Amino acid sequence: MKIETNERALSLRGTVKDQDLPKLREVLIEALTSDSVGHLDLEPLRSVDVYLLQLVAVALSESATRGRSWTLGLPRVGRELASKVGLEPHLSPFLREKVSA
Amino acid sequence: MTGSDGLREQFILEARDLLSELEAALLELEGAPHDADSVSRAFRAMHTLKGSGSMAGLDDLAAFTHELESAFDQVRNGQLAITPQLITVSLRAADHLGREVEGLDSDEALRAREGTLLDELAAVLESGEGREATSATSSGHDAEEPAELHRYRIQWRPGGGLQPFGLEPVALLDEVLFMGEAKLSSVWTLPARLSEFDPTVLGVEWVIDLETSSDQGVLHDIFIFVPDEAAPVIEDGNAPASIEGVAPSRASAGASSAQPAPTAEPPHAEPPRPSALEPAARAVEAAKHQAVPSVRVPAPKLDRLFDLVGELVIAQARLNQLAGESSNDSLQGLSEELAHLTNDLRDSAMEIRMLPVGSTFGRFRRLVRDLAQNLDKDVELVTSGDDVELDKNVIDRLNDPLIHLIRNGIDHGIESRERRLAAGKPARGRLSIRAEHVSGNVVIEIADDGKGLDLEQIYAKALEKGLVPEGARPSDRELREIIFAAGLSTASSVTDVSGRGVGMDVVRSAISELRGRIEVESTVGKGSCFRVTLPLTLAIIEGLLLELDGAKYVVPLAIVEECLEIRADRDRTSADRGIIDVRGELVPYLRLRSWFGADSVQPAVEQVVVVNLRNERFGFVVDQVIGQHQTVVKGLGRMFRDIRELSGATILGDGTVALILDVNLLVDHLRALAERDERGAGASESVTATV
Q1: In DSSP terms, which residues pair with B103 in a beta bridge?
Q2: Is residue A65 classed exposed, middle or buried when 0-12, 13-18 and 19+ CB atoms within 10 A define those classes?
Q3: Average pLDDT over every residue of B230-258
């Protein structure tokens, strides 16, 4: 998985593996602390799994707690997965309207 | 090895068992199409294979198995009858899955065969023949009657138990949702701060209310790889509730929510009541936890362990010898203690390698079925002694010889239906395979109720092939033995099953390599019985150490009955063989000194080792009996492979080598010589001694 930052958007690309998650958590903590990110873009990812969605949900929740809510870009498969596993309420308030296939 | 490699390897091991179980269930169903238990076994094997394959990333395999499973789901629901066509295509599908699991074919070949099989399966499903007998389904209910529905509540908190095993929670969830009408609720408990969050742990509890025709075993199979701490609690929703209020409700430290799952089937009008586990379900749960845990270990690792144990036994023998020569009490005490531990370790290691022969017998059902169909014969396979255990390595190497014997029994032994009826026999032939323990060995009998060996035909064929000299008439036993000669077949035509005279000689040599022997008994018109006698293990045996002409030899202790002393001068026994009177019973003996051509001076007092082979006693005269010896069997290597009287070697405590005698072969020599004597052809001196 690749993590890219462009202006205030943090994008994830490629395939997320189990071992990527701790590293991503640290990146997100840093972004929250430094207030360097306003948008989290998961749309370029090839696949999305429940562990990633859970991590993102916590990050988004904390961003809201800090008073600077992030927005989220999620591919359609990610939305469907979130809906299936019950994480939709934690993610949908942050979603941008654009839906990718 | 990576996690995914490990998962794949684990899947292959599991899949072999599942396919074996599937084949056994299908073959049972062929004989008893209404057997509910066999339908359930077949379905569960397919279902578990599908789930495991999916988890191992074999999506094509999972998808193919799903189609097969769907067909058997129809059988379970009374919508489809078991027919020979369905069994045949299912067996071929199982073969195909086996090849896919083992990676024997290219992807293109697999997909092509898969397409063909799915077409065949579809044709079976669409044919009226498959559906007309639905009232005779295994569960006994009418075709019109819907299958019995079960309601379950599955509460699942996977936590951190899945990721270390590479298990995908959503795939497991989908498996459950696929089983029937399901309503999924989720309760997520997530920390408020990312710094407090462990990304490998799922903070969710899923609750699924499921209505399905599948039984609880299928549910358990889905979670078969899930460790106990991450396994779901499954309640039978049909059971009366005894504990209320198990609906999910958890205080949330941070963000949490409970919502029904919109992706599942529409909510059931009356979801199952929350209930405690019913007694039967509790029993299943209890059994799951009380079952003896087992670990799959690759065979090479076991072999390596056993090699090391063998080396340890040899080292212990050397230590024991050194300690015995020493006056150091502490060393002697330590050596004795170590000897006990080594013995225990040896026994435990041997136990690990012992497997029931039934695992091999089960595979023969398919062989018998296919052969009988090919030859247009009706053959029933009966097995007994399936739980008799043998060393895994013996079982592995026994497979091919037994297949030869079964093929010959069906092709040459059992007659066609017409001939059997004409001979006053039942149209259905019977092939039986029986295993039993006899005198420290395992005896496996393969018997048929066919036409038996035609000794006159064998004699004529042996003359034609030059296996018997002109004018010589072998005994019946010798004629029966001739069938093990290379190139002899009495079949009038060569089929793809047998008849090329290749096989029985290979059978004998394969069994000899296992330090076993094969004998045949036969009665014309009634059938033949091949008796294979095998040692329990190839690795370590309790032996009796003997000395002859300054060299050491070992015979298996299990067959030794007693040792007697004879004096050459008093008993006049210097001949190479003779008969000894042991308390009134005459026992033939062979003087190994003469047999091996020893040229040292014969001792004045010799020992006769009396062995018992299938209730027959034989003696072997040696210079001296040294005593019991734990024998780690080693191969002799190429140089000695033609010396058939020796079946191996072992290393003694002083580092010297002792040779292991093939007693079965020596007894064969003795019998052959005795028969020659009886016919007056032998010129050897025969002397009777009395002990």
Answers
A1: none
A2: middle
A3: 52
Side chain identity, residue B297: V
User: CB-side exposure of B180: number of CA atoms within 13 Å?
Assistant: 21
- Contacts of residue B635, Cβ cutoff 8 Å, sequence gap at least 6: B648, B649
Question: Which residues, 6+ apart, have CB-to-CB distance to B252 below 8 Å?
Answer: B189
How does DSSP classify residue B521? E
B162-214, pLDDT tens digit by residue?
Answer: 888 778 898 888 888 888 888 899 999 999 899 999 999 999 999 999 988 88
Q: Are B255 and A61 in contact (CB under 8 A)?
A: yes
> Helices B59-76 and B107-126, interaxial angle, to 10°?
20
8-state DSSP, B146: P
| Inter-chain touch B188–A80, beta carbons under 8 Å | no
Distance between CA B61 and CA B101 in Å, rounded?
8
Minimal Cβ distance to B188: which of A22, A84, A90: A90
Reduce the DSSP state of residue B58 to 3 states and report it: coil
Beta sheet of B560-567, edge-to-edge order: B560-567, B605-613, B616-622, B585-591, B577-582, B687-690
Residue with tokens 């397919």: B46
Please state the ipTM of this predicted complex.
0.93
Please tell me if residue B187 touches chain A, with a CB cutoff of 8 Å: yes
For residue A72, list its beta bridge partners. A40, A95
What pLDDT is recorded for position B55? Answer: 73
The one-character DSSP state at B510 is H
Q: How far apart are the first and last CA of chain B?
A: 65
Strand B379-384 with B233-236, pairing: unpaired
Q: At what angle do helices B84-102 and B59-76 cross, to 10 degrees?
A: 160
Q: How many CB pairs below 8 A link A and B?
A: 89
Shortest alpha-carbon distance between residue B242 and chain A (Å): 29
Mark yes or no for CB contact B188/A57 under 8 Å: yes
pLDDT tens across B271-303, in order?
333 333 344 444 444 444 444 567 777 778 888
- Cβ proximity of B632 and B605 under 8 Å: no
Cβ-in-10-Å burial (0-12, 13-18, 19+) of B2 comes to exposed
CB contacts, 8 Å: B4 with chain A: none
Contact B206 A86 (CB under 8 A): yes
Q: Reply yes or no on whether the pLDDT at B270 is more than 60.
A: no
* Interface residue B186 vs chain A (CB under 8 A): yes
What is the Cα B312 distance to its own chain's centre?
28
Least confident of B126-140, B257-271, B511-525, B634-648: B257-271
Residue of B nearest to A61 (CA): B192
User: Both tokens of residue A4?
Assistant: 């890219």
A87·B188 Cβ contact <8 A: yes
B129 Cα distance to chain centroid: 37
Tokens 């027959």 found at: B616
**Rounded alpha-carbon distances, angstroms, from residue B262 to A86, B102, B257, B271, B422:** 9, 40, 14, 15, 69
Residues of A (24-83) whose Cβ lies below 8 Å from B: 24-25, 28-29, 32, 49-51, 54-55, 57-59, 61-62, 65, 80-81, 83
> How far B384 CA sits from the closest chain A CA (Å)?
50
Instruction: Identify the H or E element spanning B442.
Output: strand B441-448
**Strand, helix or coil for residue B577:** strand
Rounded Cα gap, residues B137 and B527, in angstroms: 38
What single-letter DSSP state applies at residue B149? P
Q: What is the C-alpha separation between B559 and B614, in angstroms, rounded?
A: 9
Tell me how crowded residue B235 is: count the other CB atoms within 10 A of its CB: 27
Q: Closest Cα to residue B195, out of A52, A55, A68?
A: A55
Place of tokens 């707690």: A65
What six digits make up the tokens of B111?
């997909």
**Could you give the CA distance from residue B114 to residue B117 in angstroms, rounded to a whole number?**
5
